[in-house]
Every structure is written in structure tokens, then in C-alpha cells.
Amino acid sequence: MKVFIVADIEGVAGVTRPTQCQQGNTEYEGARGLMEGEVNAAIEGALLAGATRIVVADSHGTMGNLRADNIHPAAELVQGKPREFSMAQGIETDHFDAVAFIGLHSPASVKGVLAHTINGRAFHRVELNGKVVGESDLYAAFAAEHGTPLVLTSGDDCFSQWVSKRHPEVEAVCVKTMHSTVSAQSLSPQTARKLLREAMEKTLSRPLPSVTPHFTAPFSIRLTTTRPVLADGFAMLPGIVQEEAQVVSFTCDDMGGVIRTLGALSLYSGSLL
Predict the structure, then answer these.
(1) Which of 25, 100, 150, 257 has the fewest CB atoms within 10 Å distance of its CB?
(2) What is the pTM of this model?
(3) Which letter does DSSP use for residue 236 in this model?
(4) Are 101 and 156 in contact (CB under 8 A)?
(5) Are 200 and 100 in contact (CB under 8 A)?
(6) Within-domain flag for 210
(7) pLDDT in tens, 90-133
(8) Can you give the residue range of the structural domain that contains 64?
């Protein structure tokens, strides 16, 4: 059994503030350790369920958060950016039996601790075929395109509710309860890891869910930016249409194209802000 793990930081127990998520801040070192702890717990659970190959995609910020020496030796580690398929880079190269999202968060414009979609400074709201989506929706759709079902997620209570409504078959582990965008009541790291380890083992030990695409091609993206200048700049690129002062749209035939385009726009936004 081959398992792919997407690892983010905002949904980790004990992480509530932007400074914890940004390299260069003193709080970041502690937060990356909490992230590593939850990732290792998920790896351990997968091994207990009989996983023979585990690939972890470091998927926060610079995508260089997980220290290789601190990650379980049974896992392979994908790091660095830019990456063509960003948070899911690698899932397209082999057939994985399951994908899990550890430490994720609610979409931009939706309630949740440190909620955003791909780039909080540039993307205010992302819609796919008329529905608001977050990273979990985009990468679950990309995984489904490659025949891999989403089986487990972890994050705050708002994110868990978001996932459960859209993927009722998925094990959604809640490790903290939101009080505000930058405040939460978290489980202890030890308790959160125990829950993740047990949930991963349980979900991989039972029959895995069938792959159920929640979106069908063509894939139409409507992106609301945080500032008009971003939409102005994005519309200069081929295939990007500016609909309103802060809204652009584009269409792709596959989810890989959606992921590539959003990733490129995120990178490009750095020159416009």
C-alpha cells in the first residue's frame, strides 16, 4: 500500500498566529517542530496499517519546513518550490492508494484559524465551477484525477466541518477549536499525535473509499484578488480574463492545469505587491 501525505502548518495543534508560520520569527522553530510531530504520527499510523511506501510533500510557504533528520526514516520527503503541482507534487508520478492532508485549514473567505487558499496576501476567494474551494478541495480533485482517494484530514473544527460536508467518507481529525482567525483552543501535541496515529491506522486498515470526483471538466476558476493591481497584472497573462476590478477567471481541461496556473499566479503576485 502506497500513501501520500500533504503536510501544512496552519492546521497543526498549537499553531494559531501568523508569526508561527513565517521563517525568521522565533516562534517558527517551535511551530515547525509541532508540524513534524503530527506528520510523524501520521506516518507511524500508516506503517501500522501496512503501508509499504510513504511520500510526504512539505507544503507550507517555502516548502522547506520539515527537517529531514526529524522525519520518520520510512518516509520519502518532497521539498522546495516552485513545484509544477505544488502541494501534491509527486502524486502524479506513481499510483498511490490513499492521500492524507495533515495540518490543513479552511479556504480563503471561509471561517477558520489562519484560513487562506494558496496565497493569503494575493487570493481573497477562489471558486471552481461556481463553488468556493480551498487547498483541500483543489488537491483532492487533483488526486482523484490520478486515481487516489482522500482518506484523512486534520486541522481545526471549522476545517473538519468543511471536509465532512464535502467528503463524508473521509476521516476528519480535529486538533483544535477556533476562537478567532488567530486564536484557538488546541489539544496537547501528544494527544493530537495519538489521535492522528490511531485515525490513520484505522482508516487505512479498512476498505478504502472509491475515487469520487467532485468536479468535472472543463474546470472554470474565478479568482478574487486582495487588490485591484493583482487582477490588472494577472489579466496581462494569456488565458486570464479580468471580469471585475479584483476578479479574474480562466478555464483548464484538467486539474493539473488549474494547479499550475494558480501556482504561477501566486508566484507572479510577489512582483505586484
Answers:
(1) 25
(2) 0.97
(3) T
(4) no
(5) yes
(6) no
(7) 999 999 999 999 999 999 999 999 999 999 999 999 999 999 99
(8) 2-205
